[in-house]
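Q: Please design a sequence for this.
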């Protein structure tokens, strides 16, 4: 499943550059994760980098976007193809 950033976010700017899929951006009040781009770092890393780096542990799984590891791999492949223009 995709991840989400809760309102406990302190806008420390650590998560955004760590996201290999450019799924994280600054929202109106705090950073947000675009679920269509979040693969939990599947295809890039063994663990979600934003979760690993977050100093306040405000990045849980998003219950509105439940996905299996296989679905996350498929999403990763689609993002790679889109980036390559295929």
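A: Design:
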């Amino acid at each position: 499943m995709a991840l989400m950033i809760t309102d406990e976010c302190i806008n420390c700017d650590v998560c955004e550059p760590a996201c290999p899929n450019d799924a994280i951006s600054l929202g109106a009040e705090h950073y947000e994760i675009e679920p269509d781009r979040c693969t939990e770092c599947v295809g890039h890393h063994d663990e979600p980098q934003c979760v690993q780096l977050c100093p306040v542990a405000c990045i849980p799984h998003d219950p509105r976007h439940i996905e299996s590891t296989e679905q996350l791999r498929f999403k990763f492949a689609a993002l790679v193809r889109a980036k390559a223009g295929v």
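Q: Thanks. Anything notable?
A: The chain is about 30% helix and 5% strand. The domain at 15-84 is CATH 3.30.70.20 (Alpha-Beta Plaits).
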